[in-house]
Design goal:
Number of strands: 4
Distance between the termini: 46 Å
Helix content: 40-55%
Radius of gyration: 20 Å
Shape: globular
Strand content: 5-15%
Strand order of the largest sheet: 1-2-4-3
Length: 184
């Protein structure tokens, strides 16, 4: 799966983590590993322009998704004959998301993971204009984010344990011998 990311927002964020959230969501939605996605992080001004131009709504927003038009009938995983292709673009505005994260009581990266997942679902044809659509989309979003957070926590726990084990082995003199030194 090819995921391109460009940060033109002026906000320093963990871009690899955003890509990981997108890849996780796409994997959970069983999107072809040959699919391509672009993620762009922009300033408030750029997002405001996009929001007004494409949605005819005033002011900036947190996330916008621009699916490729020719994929409309094959985007959802339950649609027939899904084919690998360019899914589209997700545009995130970290400056806007920062205020939302503060209001929600979580970190900016948590908000960006949520918005990335939200954008992926939009690219796959999900929407939240009607109550039933909103329940479906937000239910998927919540499940995917929960699983992503659990996977990240498990990975962090494993890495911390490995680091602690390496320190203990080093203190006991049981760490690996340097490559140029034969074992004793």
């Amino acid at each position: 799966m090819s995921i391109e990311i460009a940060n033109e927002s002026g906000v320093n964020v963990d871009e690899a983590s955003i890509v990981s959230a997108a890849r996780f969501a796409l994997d959970k939605m069983e999107v072809s590993p040959l699919a391509e996605l672009s993620i762009l992080l922009v300033t408030l001004e750029v997002m405001e322009d996009l929001h007004e131009r494409w949605m005819d709504l005033p002011g900036p927003t947190d996330v916008m998704a621009f699916p490729m038009d020719e994929l409309d009938s094959s985007r959802r995983p339950d649609a027939p004959d899904a084919s690998p292709a360019l899914l589209g673009d997700i545009v995130l505005c970290p400056a806007f998301a920062k205020d939302q994260a503060k209001t929600a009581g979580h970190a900016l990266m948590d908000e960006l993971h949520l918005l990335t997942t939200h954008g992926v679902l939009h690219l796959l044809g999900y929407d939240h204009a009607e109550p039933a659509e909103e329940r479906e989309m937000f239910g998927l979003q919540k499940r995917i984010l929960g699983e992503f957070q659990a996977a990240v926590a498990a990975l962090n726990k494993r890495d911390a344990q490995r680091s602690a084990d390496d320190r203990l082995l080093g203190t006991a003199g049981l760490d690996a011998a340097p490559a140029d030194e034969p074992p004793a």
